[in-house]
Write a structure and sequence with these properties.
Strand content: 15-25%
CATH superfamily: Metal-dependent hydrolases
Structural class: alpha/beta
Helix content: 40-55%
CATH topology: TIM Barrel
Radius of gyration: 17 Å
Distance between the termini: 19 Å
Strand order of the largest sheet: 3-4-5-6-7-8-9-10
CATH architecture: Alpha-Beta Barrel
Number of helices: 11
Order of helices and strands: EEEHEHEHHEHEHEHEHHEHH
Number of domains: 1
Number of strands: 10
Amino acid sequence: MRVRTVLGDVASADLGVCDAHDHLFLRTPRLPGRELDDPAHAAARLRAFAGLGGRTIAHWTPYGLGRRTKELAELSAATGVHIIAATGLHQAVHYDPGLLARIRPGLAALFHRELTDGPAGMIKVAGGFHGLDEHARHTMAAAAEASNATGAPIGVHLEEGTAALDVLDLLCGSLGVPPDRVILSHLNRSPDPWIHRRAAEAGAYLCFDGPSRAHHATDWRLFDVLAALAEAGHTDRVLMGGDTTTPDTPGMPHLLRVLRPRVEAQLGRGVATAIFETNPARALAFSGRAGGSP
């Protein structure tokens, strides 16, 4: 299996320790004055991550939100950390309506082009709070078309961790995306073990990311839900990420300095290896023709 990074394809077995959901650069009107837009700061975080044994990050900043793809390639080359960039779209509130109107008719072609010609190695889309609006459905349809043509994985922002099963019903039911091509994120923000088990049983990957100040009340439940998934036999579906969204987010270093040792201490070294190495090597890989034409 191959993974598409900003410096080209690599064997999935070479990814090493992965941060399965993060951001080096991000600009959105939803976070005014709190942009991630400093290459020196990004380089420092990457070096700290690498110093703790990190080898790969999945950079979930999609089209139109300040990905800085040229800098991503430069940072990867300078630090030796693999970076997987995203195409796709976030929720409509993150964009100028004029931009959405221009790109909407050719969205699937845009995603496909960025997956095949660069810079993207995955697609990022977003649901809504306990449901899917028209923008989400349109974006997910385009993502499904591009994923089914290329084999690219689809990462899904779940608003407050909700609507996981609605997303799977649409992507994997109506739109025919294999469930192991879908990564559901922010599940720690809605720590519902029943929903988590259902999503894992469906075959999707479950990404627990953060921590985040806005969701601190759920942080202490993270290891309860991880333990519940392990007990139910779903360790092979779990991923973790730092999800750095503002300059003060603990992010990548916290993921490996604090959370990974705790996974190992509470759930065992084998579970930690699965979550940070084995599972992301599968989840982030292209399936089928890996970027071929439809």
